[in-house]
Amino acid sequence: MTQIIYRLVLIEKQQKEVMEDLKKYLKKREDGALEKLSKHLSSEEVKARFTLWTLDEVPNVERSWKVTENQIMKVLLSRLREMIQQWEEDNQVFTNARESLVQHFQQRYNFVAEQLRNLQDAVTTNNMNVQQTVTTDSGLSLGEKIFIGVTSPIWFPLSLVALVIGAPFIGAFAVKEKLEDKKKIKKYEENRCAFMAKQSVAYLDLAKNEIVLRPFVRNQLEDARLCLRQIEARIPELIQADKMLCEQLIDETRSKKEIQNFYQPIMDEGSRLRGQLAVFGILEFHASDISSEELDWTQDTSSRLGCGAFGVVYQGTMRRHGFVQPVALKVCKEVLHAKNACEILVEVELLR
Fold this sequence. Notes:
Layout: H1 2-41, H2 44-50, H3 65-91, H4 93-125, H5 142-151, H6 181-190, H7 192-207, H8 210-220, H9 222-250, H10 256-284, E1 295-297, E2 304-307, E3 311-320, E4 323-332, H11 341-351
Antiparallel strand pairs: 1-3, 2-3, 3-4
Helix pairs in contact: 1-4, 1-8, 1-9, 4-9, 5-10, 5-11
């Protein structure tokens, strides 16, 4: 037990290094997204589109310059947001960054959590030669998928992460001209399109500045940052729980069988709840990437490619975007229920 506690302390020290690594990775992806967006806003194509205005697009003259200027800023903001949103839809920069961050965070979280599970195995088997480290590739075990992908508070379904294009641009982009209201209004009335083109250049120059873009990019990756904060809080809780367990076991007088009999019903109930949550996750959140209309296959012997313990594989074709390609479809043998839902989630992830 002393060796177990010593290794817990080592894991705790390692956890600090893991968190530093994750924060650096977050900063790297944030810098990458910032660089790509800034480069896009600096392109001649964006400048040409952003500064071209028609009379139907520019605001009318209001009762005062302050109100007129506010309308101009709103129109500029709206155009900028639309252009950034279109760029994100075309390139998926923020979406890919969020997915990459969450996957990386989960892998590192799994690295620490697996070591704790190895220690728990050492306690129950009285064997200190259990594996101390695990690989950090993307392959996650069934337990990890259940814990991280279904029930853990650090998880959020990426399909539900909405693209949020919005930031406090107004105020940061205010054009400060020291002129009287009447002169400003008169100048604007003389040629509204030319005035808007000039203001657009100054507005865009400020918009692509790192000081302005950095908070915006951080806002787009806030979900990943929240995930990291929850991991940072969760790992110490797991370590502390294992420390308390070790302290309790040192003074434990019951036999191993008595302890197992006491905790087995709790473990069974936890397994049942995880299964129900997995069913809920599949039915409510797990969206299908391919519709049944795009697939052509038959569940007969002639198209059957193989069979395993989990399901049967059939040959079929998929029609998408005007192309037809052969595909293999893995069909579960059993109807979805709480006991096999977790296994289905793992299988789907492995196939992806």
